[in-house]
Amino acid sequence: MKEPLIQNETFVKIAAPMVVGVFFLLFWQIAVVAFEMPKYILPGPIEIMKSLVTDWSTLLNALMMTLKITLLAFVIAVVLGVAASLLFIQSKWIELSLFPYAVLLQVTPVVAIAPLIIIWVDDTTWALTVCAVIIAIFPIISNTTLGLRSVDPNLLSMFRMYRTSRWQELVRLRIPGALPYFFGGLRISCGLALIGAVVAEFVAGTGGSKAGLAYLILQSGYNLQIPRMFAALVLITLTGIALFALMVWLSDRALRNWHESALEVEH
Amino acid sequence: MTSSSVTPLKPSTPDPTAEPTVQAGSTNGRPVLQVEGVNKIYANGTVALKGADLTVRQGEFVSLLGPSGCGKSTLLRIMAGLGDVTSGSIKFWEQEYNVVGDKGRKMAFVFQNATLMPWARVRKNVRLPLDLEHQSGPETEQKIDKALEMVGLSGFDNSFPRELSGGMQMRASIARAMVTEPNLLLMDEPFGALDEMTRNKLNDDVLKLWQKNGWTIVFVTHSVYEAVYLSSRVVVMAARPGRIVDDIKIDQPFPRNADFRVSTEFAGYCRQVSQALERASAMGAPQEKKA
Predict the structure, then answer these.
(1) How many whole angstroms from its chain centre is CA A119?
(2) Considering only CB atoms, which chain A residues are within 8 Å of B133?
(3) Which candidate in B79, B99, B116, B128 is best for mutational testing of the A interface (most A CBs within 10 A)?
(4) Residue A88: left if φ>0, alpha if ψ -120 to 50, beta else—which one?
(5) A-B Cβ pairs (cutoff 8 Å, strict)
(6) Hey, what domains does chain A have and what are their CATH numbers?
């Protein structure tokens, strides 16, 4: 006997939020029409959809620019972050001396230093990338360092008993053990890279052929093209969700055989 | 009482690769491990071990038995070279101790928990010591097969540790210890976390392997019954300060089985060991108050 759809967990997991979303959009559209809301104040979902279609080429260009900066910053943050973590675990002294500066990087609002970076770095793309890296790197550093340090002390003893080199210890023990922490860092960091790219562009306010979604939002605001503003916002949100989903998928792929976070819960 | 365990050095030339056949449980084999006057004092002044003297001979099954804090695990870790001593010396095969990784002097350690790498399959976990020694080739694979077979884990090569029961994880841990064909096996309360049935089964299996392969085992436990059942010698320790207070030979033949558990001899030895433990704690009590 086939089980009814309503009892299928996967179906419910997807359908329930969908229903909420559809009702919300429906309510929004009805409200906009019922109160005769002008579209330069609050456009309805249909207007926004229309804008997504008619302005698609502009939006796509901007999206590609923002995506480029986000991914570039994310990759740099991962590389530099992991390198920093590997450096930190070499000695307690190095970590003690440098970690406060990593925290400093984290707590300084990027909006406050973005203007400086934009002055210092000539190329806009790189200036924005640097801002995004500053935001995205901290979760990678702190998570990976924690992971590399969280080694089963007995396993470590065993490695010591066999007079293992530090390199072997790192490759065979510390790095595999740090992976769950590292992937946790990736999940947070990918979203931050996107936020960094958008925020930096808001501050920079650069236009022209290299304009990203943030500039498009600014520009649409000046021109009262509010549906396009919403369309750009939708794209940013979708990008963020896609990046996060990608990280979850990557982490599940890498850890599914052994780590609790990736195991399927049995009922 | 501790003096009974101190044995003068024999002037024989140490040849670790030659392994004369020694009757399991024999007490006149060559000394594998000699702990002499070992003190261990922590930075905060806690005396973890005071004047520990102990000689473990080839083919012996020695249990270190005592209450928590008596330094039995500390002593075992020192034997494994996993901790410094404040003073005293440790000799392995009658040589000053600095030869952990050397060929022919191999020792293996089995921890309280299985201590497997959760990200690696059983086979990879078992081969770890060989990997760390950069061994490979068909001979290595045979060693791994043999170790897995001995602990009854053949066919579980590709399982991940989480897929195994606690007892099976412990078996994998033992296979990993055996794969280097150690002269000396150090076990730190290895089955403490397991249920009694699994524990008894594993104890019997370890005994069989010990007898069959002519191993030397030092086994830390806090169970009087386990110590008496398994050992050819029970070394009783007391806490505050951690020290050796008695050394009791369990003069019973191997193999031992369920019949031994219900025999009057078994009960007699258990009583003797328990009394030694009680005396030890009575000695420790006043000092505890002073501290």
Answers:
(1) 26
(2) 162
(3) B128
(4) alpha
(5) 56
(6) 44-254 (1.10.3720.10)
Given a contact cutoff of 8 angstroms between Cβ atoms, the answer to whether A185 and A142 are in contact is yes
pLDDT in tens, B263-277: 888 888 899 999 988
Q: How far is CA B8 from CA A17, B12, B22, B276, in A?
A: 79, 12, 20, 25
Report how far residue A111's alpha carbon sits from residue A130's, in angstroms, rounded to the nearest whole number: 12
Residues of chain B positioned with their CB less than 8 A from the CB of A176: 117, 119-120
Is B20 an 8 Å CB contact of chain A? no
Give the residue ranges of DSSP H helices in chain A.
9-34, 45-54, 56-88, 92-107, 110-120, 124-149, 153-161, 166-168, 175-204, 213-222, 226-255
User: How far, in Å, CA of A114 to CA of A119, rounded?
Assistant: 9
Q: Is the peptide bond before B255 cis (omega within 30 degrees of 0)?
A: yes
The answer to whether residue B133 neighbours chain A at the CB level (below 8 Å) is yes
Q: Angle at the Cα of B255 (from B253 to B258), degrees rounded to 5? A: 105
> Could you tell me the two tokens for B243?
């020290």
Q: CA-to-CA distance for B282 and B50, rounded, in angstroms? A: 17
pTM metric for this prediction: 0.82
- Residue B157's CB is within 10 A of a number of other CB atoms, namely 15
- Dump pLDDT digits (tens) for B195-241: 888 888 888 888 888 888 888 999 999 888 889 999 999 999 888 88
Q: For residues A33 and A186, is the Cβ–Cβ distance under 8 A? A: no
Q: Does B160 touch chain A (CB under 8 A)?
A: yes
DSSP H stretches of helix in B81-157? 122-132, 138-150
A203 near A212, Cβ under 8 Å? no
* Beta-bridge partners for B40: B49
Q: Rounded to whole angstroms, how far apart are CA atoms B238 and B245?
A: 6
Say how far apart CA A58 and CA B272 lie, in whole Å. 90
> What ipTM describes this predicted complex?
0.77
Q: Could you tell me which residues are beta bridge partners of residue B57?
A: B31
Contact B16, B182 (CB under 8 A): no
CATH architecture of the domain with range B56-105+213-291: 3-Layer(aba) Sandwich (3.40)
Smallest Cβ–Cβ distance between B160 and the set A158, A168, A257 belongs to A257
As given in the structure block, the two tokens for residue B205 are: 């299996």
Instruction: Give me the residue spans of the domains in chain B.
Output: 56-105+213-291, 107-181
Q: List, edge to edge, every strand of the sheet that includes B184-188.
A: B107-110, B184-188, B216-221, B61-65, B233-238, B243-249
CA distance A68 to A53: 22
The chain B residue lying nearest A169, using CA atoms, is: B132
A265 or B141, which is more confident: B141
Secondary structure (3-state) at B244: strand
Would you call A256 an interface residue with chain B, using a CB distance cutoff of 8 Å? no
